Structure formats: C-alpha cells, structure tokens
C-alpha cells in the first residue's frame, strides 16, 4: 500500500493522510464477481455505490460471499418498507441462507489458515494500569467459547432461548456473546451500569431464562457490584422466567483485588440451584461444541435502546444480514488490513460494542482491544498511553470523550507518541468542528484521517461515513452514505421529499441487510416509531442537512430542535458554537417555554479547568453564538455547570435538562441510568428557572 506521509491537504481539502490514497483505480481490475478488498478512489466508490442501489441483489450477494455459509443464500433481498402496503413492513435478507455467526468470527479463520490460531484476537486492557499484556489468540478464544457454550447447554439453554448478559467490559463478556451465538441462543446485553430496576425491566420484556453476570466489575478504580444487582432484580415478580444465573469471577487470578472488591466478593449471596460459578462449571464440560446452523433470519440478539417516551425498545437483530453488514462496514470504513491493531472504546453493552468491538472485527480476523476502564483514570493520558502500549493503528471513540479530554492541557496527549495511529473514528453524536480539529491535529498529529460514522442501534452498522482517504473530509460532517444506503430528507412540515441542498428529517429509502427487523415481540411499535412518521421510509429520528456537494451534516435528534421566534435552531449547532470558545469544555442546549418567542434558549456550559465563571464570560459566550450562527440566535440563559447529567455511555441526558428548565422537576423521570445522579440536584439548585 502506498503511504503519503504528509499530503494532508490536497487543493486545500483535508484527507488526513496515513492511508491509501492512490491515483489508479482498482475498479479497472475488478472482475465484478466479488467485492474489492478496499475502496481506494472516489470513482470506485461511485461505481460500486451505483451498483449497490441499482442492483442490491447482486451487491449484497457479493457481500455475503465474504462470509462462510452452510447453505449459501439464493434469495437475497425480500423487503417491504411501506406501512400502507397490504404486506405491511417486513424485512428479510438471505432468507434461505444457513450460517453461524460464531463460526464466522472464529473457527473459519483457523480452518482456512492455521496461522490464524496463533494470531491475537483480543487484547485485554484492564482498568488497573499495568505493564502486563493480556493477549488472547484466536485458538484460545475459540476453545474458551466452546467450553462456555457447553456450560450453557449443560444448563438447558438452547437455540431460540433468550439470555440476559450483565457484565463488565472484560474478555469473558465477549466469550459469553460468542457462546450464545454458537448455540443459537439470543443474547440481550444490558450495560453493566444500569440499575437493578432497569435490568429487571429488560429481563421481563424479553422473558430471558438465564442471566450471565460477574461478581463485580471495576471502572475508574471503583468496584461496581453486578451479581448483587441481579439478585435484587430477580426478587421482582416479572423476572421469574430466569432459572439460572451463571457468575464469572472477574479477571480470575490475573490481577490483585482491591479491598472494596474483596469485600464485594465476600458478601455475595448465593441461591443454590440457581446460581453457579462459571469457573466451577467449566471444569465439568469438554471443549467440543459444534456451531448450530442458523437460518439467516433467526434472531441473533436483542439490544434495548431508550425511546423518546415510554419503556425501552428491544431492538431485534437477526443473523445473516447483521453479520454481513457489520463485517463489510468494518472492513471498508476502517480500511482494515491484516495485522493491524484496532481499538474501539465502547462498552459491549451498546451497539457499538456489539458491531465494532466484537462481530465486525472478529469476522474480519482483526485484533480488537477490550478496554475495561475509563478515559480519565488514572489520568487523562489513559487512551494515548494505551495506543502506545499496544501500538494501536485504528482508534474509534465518542465525541463526548474527545471533548472531555481536550479540556485539559495538550501535554497529556503530546507526551505520548501515537506514531502507530493510521486512522481515527468517532461515533454517537455530532462532533463539533473544534473537537474534530483537536482530534485531528493534536491526537492524530495531523496525519490521520477521521471517520465520523453516523448510525444507530437500529441500523446495525455504519450508514453515513467517510471511507478513509477516498474523498475530502469536512470537520463535523459524516460525509456520504455507505453502499446500499439511500438517504432522503423529508420536510418536517409537509412530509414531502426535499432535494439537496436542504435540511429535513433524515430518512432511508430502502432496506439494508444490517437493519433491525423488529422490536422484540412488538412489531406494531416498530412500525409506529420507524415507518409511520414518513410512510414508505425508515425514519431515523434525526435531522440532517445535505449540502450542494452531497455531504451530510447531522443536526441532532429532531426533538432537540428549538423553535425560537419562528426560527428553527438545532441545539447541536449552538453547542458547537459554544465549545468553539476557548474557555468552554462542553455545552448542552435545551429549550424552555417562552410566551413571546415560543421557546427560550438555555445553555448549560462546562468550563475548562481553572477558568473562572463571570458575567463578562457569559456575555462573551452569547456573542460567540450570535457571531457564529446569526444574530437571530440568542442564548437567553447561560448556566455554568461543572458537571452535566450523563448516561454511563457518556451521552448527555437532555430529557432531564429539559425538565429542569421547563421547570418540571417533579417529573424528572428515571434518573437511575445516570453516571452520577447527584448532578441533577446541583443543577436544580443553581438554575434561575427553579429558584
Ligand atoms: O442522533 C444520532 C446519534 O446517536 C443516535 C443513535 O444512538 P444509539 O442508537 O445509541 O447508537 C449510538 C451508536 C451508533 C443517532 O440517532 N449519532 C450517532 N452517530 C452519530 C450521531 N450523531 C451525529 N453524528 C454521528 N456520527
């Protein structure tokens, strides 16, 4: 591969450039019977994109051939998006194909090339800082998965059963997911930070018959109990379906235990006949376990995501289409090359962890890093130290992490080398240009391309994303759609399609293999939420602007739009303006009712370390916003907030901020999923609208 070490800007356009920008197109040699290994030129993208839209059956047949099937599918696409049709919304891909996801992530690599057995599948980086390297090879992982799959079978868990997984971010979690996939059990991972009530709600919704957990987890130096939360959840009537609880002992033997963890382990309650230590059960099984042949449309997993109202939605993903999509998007978007070390900082409790810590990388025979800790422990150099320690080539994280780290002195980054990096990525929320530039220049040393990937739990994989070095980047834009994805803006008022340049509700015109098939046992709600708002389209719930050059700029959730004096203002846009001020680390903007202007604009602002709060600074920030966006945009209230209410995955909970500023503090709703619920009280006390 040719590397251009310094041509970062070509004709003033940023490519970010330790990658494969070539002049010659590989499509010239492409025989059209299988997909090329990487996408290297814009012409190549355009021709393949056109093929994926004009002949999806051909394109997605080639994509499926990247996997190994027991029975290769002959029926590729069979989908209906229109809720008004007599068939109703129905999504089927590869419906006569037979496949096993675990086999595709592990066995086949070794069967095809015995060298793969010794290659590292997972590098585990524990919460505790250590020089020790924990490497798990493909052969070791396969053996561990087979054994654990036999433990599941021994406890009567079989194809089609639902298993809830409530674990910290450790290798055993990956083993648990892969073992479920191997025997055809449907996993439902609940992020380890959720409260026992939230776990109970999710167990009862999917009626799981078993829970896989750990005695505890460790994050940021703190011990977090897990098994005891499951105990509490299982006392609830609605969780009576659970017959077995399999308990991993966290990081058996590899690390010394902190005092609070020892206490936690010693105080564990045990219910005989229900609770089982995994390490004891593993001794009773052998390590032969054939993968279960699954129909492509058999469920692979359920993953809960919060809806704008009501109870969480059990997003249902199936087997063949999901893996085809997660695998191809991983390969192309990261331009993954054999031998590269890849790290995604997400927890397996979220879709990013499913698709891009586990299934995408392993199906491509990649080396993936599993990081147990947080970016700020023991200090804010942690990510950059990990990059050096493991010589990471591709690093994928969330804008919220980037913003929280850029608030500190750059020396926390620059004292590390980061020379191994080739590519950076972001996911989860719009990245403001200021954070993008910091990531690009300081973290990437102005050498690495950034892939800003827009997608959702529901989409299974990347939807709008740059392909590295194939077209120029614009900081803050996720750029262009992935193969097979037809974006369409619709007017929020008239519901009519809009032609770019325009801004509207972001919808998708036709199906792609990775999309969710339904909500678990609630197809009606699935159709209502995603297909009825704009009949004939999948509605993402996001707003988007598409510019003349076709680049997509996500403006945030449609319900995050403020209407002030007849102007629509995206809260993300205002936040982006605020964080461009050198004193601001993070901002969250919400609306509150105003009789004259319809809505007023309330800005929560977190200042960088050592910046003093003052009225003069408030005035400066208001001016910054007006200067950046327009004089019609006027922040009414600036509230300096050292902390914002965030979910454990780092997302700011705007729902709670809206309630504070309305004010409607008696109806804050569920705050149990917050990283630190005490933040809410601090904000209420300081808010001019609640005083
Ligand atoms: O609003 C979009 C935002 O995150 C939402 C999906 O959240 P979730 O299902 O939790 O999945 C997160 C990981 C894929 C989207 O509706 N979002 C995600 N990625 C981006 C984004 N907003 C802007 N830019 C992105 N790159």
Automatic annotation (TrEMBL):
Residues 573-651 form the AMP-binding enzyme C-terminal domain. It catalyses: acetate + ATP + CoA = acetyl-CoA + AMP + diphosphate. InterPro entries: Ac_CoA_lig (IPR011904), ACAS_N (IPR032387), AMP-bd_C (IPR025110), AMP-bd_C_sf (IPR045851), AMP-binding_CS (IPR020845), AMP-dep_synth/lig_dom (IPR000873), ANL_N_sf (IPR042099). Pfam families: ACAS_N (PF16177), AMP-binding (PF00501), AMP-binding_C (PF13193). GO terms for biological process: acetyl-CoA biosynthetic process from acetate. It comes from the Eukaryota. It is an enzyme of class 6 (ligase). One of its GO terms (molecular function) is AMP binding. GO terms for cellular component: cytosol. The keyword Hydrolase does not apply. Residues 120-510 form the AMP-dependent synthetase/ligase domain. Its EC number is 6.2.1.1. Keywords: ATP-binding, Ligase, Nucleotide-binding. Belongs to the ATP-dependent AMP-binding enzyme family. This is Acetyl-coenzyme A synthetase. It comes from Adineta steineri.
